[in-house]
Amino acid sequence: MKIAKIAGIVVAVLVAVLVLFIATFDIGKYKGVIQDQAKAATGREVVIGDIKMAFSLTPAVTLTNVTVANAPWGSRPQMVVLKSAAAHLALIPLLSGTVDISSITAEDPDLWLETDRQGKGNWEFTSAAPASTKSGGAALNVGALGAKGVKLNYKDGKTGQVTVVGIKSVDVALEGPLSAMHITKVDMADATIAMKDAKSATNATIGKFTMDAKGKISDLGITNIAVNDAKVNYKGEGAPVEAVFDKLSLDKDGKLEIAGKLNGEDIKGSGSLAPVAVLAALNKPFPAKVSLEAMGLKAETDLQVSVVDNRPRIKGTIAVAEYTLLSASKEKSTQMFPPAPLPWDALKGADADVKLSLGKVNMAGGMTATNVVVPVNLAQGKLAVAPFSFGIAGGTVSGSLTANAADKSVVLTMDGKGFTAEGIAKEIKKGEQIAGGPMDIHLSVRGAGNSMHDVAASLDGSFIAGMGEGRIRRGALNVVGADVLAQVASAINPIAGKSEYTVAKCAVVNLAISNGVATSTNGIAFVSDELQVQSSGTINLGTERVDLSVSPQARGGLGVGLGSLAQAVRIQGPLSSPGIGIDKAGAAKTLGVIGMAFATGGGSILAQGAKNRMEGGDPCQTARASTAKK
């Protein structure tokens, strides 16, 4: 007890002496020495406006108006500009030669970090004098770092990308010597991040960010990350993205939780990734098994992801039970092929080998695709989606799509078979309008360009679609203006059938495509029990305009020579909304026929109708054969 009492008195005396020394010590006299030592340690000019020591049980050393010079090649003179900083000392550890700083706080630090074109950072200091290796020096322990009004700029010398970060407040907890940088916790509030380069811009705000870690921070021993009230806006190639996260967390075992909105649609996810340390380092592949609900879909991923060498590589499967295509924007565009640039550069930036499967896809108008299989292979800017397939209206569609970022080319082939017009009508809730009508389609095109518009304007290839016999309710007849023509036929040909349905014998659309212009030379045909129609002309995908002449003829009855009337019918206008008008040259011929009819008491019309029936042949057969002739 006596020894303990004596020891206590000794410690008290030593503390009193230390307090008295600090109270009378003028640290300002050593400002020049401190600046010189800082320059020797960093190789950079360090300027301190003022330095003071405040007396208390935890004395504080305060520095104001501090600047640290940038690297000689830097883009601004100062790397660090600091309004003020204060270090709070613990007295008793000084007795044993240990400098314990309970906290360092900074006000309005402005940091400018950048790399040169070779990737060297301006934070890589070159000491003017080698660091001392003598033992026995005082250890510098720091318990916490705190800052308010932080501004951080980062410029990538290779890419030119600039990132600006603003933080209202940040607190960092550490263990052990400051040099070890054993950060255990980070709390950050009200942060803003802006990233911009020549092609894109990203802006983000974070309400609250927390991170737990162990060990040296450079070893990325991060154990937990949680983000609340975050918002991200991206504008660049492709559609803009707006993401709002109420919650985003990832723990040491890789457990993931997401809740928020993506482009206004709810997003919710959970699952497992790699531990945070692996994701932070991105130095080896990691699994991504996630259940995600977003943008009208529910998806399950079983992927292996690698970002080694800064090149993303993805392999595995993505399964979606059901997906509903979002409705189109209320602001309808008059262009079917938009001029917005295609993301060709994105194809060069990643590799993938992924099988995407969707059980059901709900499309606009009530159509549904089932058992959708889309294998995606992307390597070195070459995309191959082959063979893709899906079911629709009782039939199947299959094909392949390739795209090459090197020459910005696209090749698409597609075949559909086994479905019917009746099946399609049932899909869109119009099943009572059509019965039967087996259908087939084939599309083969290739093109190139910076945008969908450019690709469409350069397409070469062919398209053919055909329909077999079926029954169509008269009110539903709407094939290349056939509803209008059927009404005309019914009015002029009184012997034609008056039943509720008309029998469609066949229908064909056969187009040869060259330099973005789809041409029909009698390649469009429709035949019913009362009417047959042939159409020739062009559909210009570049200008998105239609110009088709329509040649209908009556079948049976009086055969009133609708071929003459046909000379006056033309489909013209924008591809998105073409209209039926009068062919002026054909109209003149039609008037001549009608005049002759009056002169002959109708005999000329009977003769003309018979001639049309004899010379007309089978329009569908003619239409199907038109491709073979090209």
Mean pLDDT across the residues is 78
Q: What Rg is obtained from the alpha carbons, in whole angstroms?
A: 39 Å
Q: Give the class from helix and strand content and strand pairing.
A: alpha+beta
- Sequence stretches where pLDDT stays below 50 over 5 or more residues: 1-22, 128-137, 478-497, 557-566, 587-615
Say how many strands there are. Answer: 31
| Morphology call | elongated
β-sheet strand percentage: over 45%
Helix content: 10-25%
What composes the largest sheet?
A: 31 strands, mixed
Relevant terms:
630 residues, alpha+beta, 31 strands, 19% helix, disordered N terminus
Write the layout of secondary structure elements.
Layout lengths: L1 H23 L6 H12 L3 E9 L5 E10 L8 E12 L8 E17 L24 E4 L1 E12 L6 E14 L6 E15 L4 E13 L8 E14 L5 E11 L3 E8 L2 E8 L3 H6 L4 E9 L2 E10 L6 E12 L19 H5 L2 E12 L5 E12 L2 E11 L2 E10 L4 E12 H7 L6 E3 L1 E11 L3 H6 L2 E8 L2 E4 L8 H11 L8 E14 L2 E12 L2 E10 L4 E10 L7 H5 L2 E6 L4 E4 L1 H17 L2 H14 L2 H11 L1
Parallel strand pairs: 4-5, 4-6, 16-17
Antiparallel strand pairs: 1-2, 2-3, 3-4, 6-7, 7-8, 8-9, 9-10, 10-11, 11-12, 12-13, 13-14, 14-15, 15-16, 17-18, 18-19, 19-20, 20-21, 21-23, 22-25, 23-24, 24-26, 25-26, 26-27, 27-28, 28-29, 29-30, 30-31
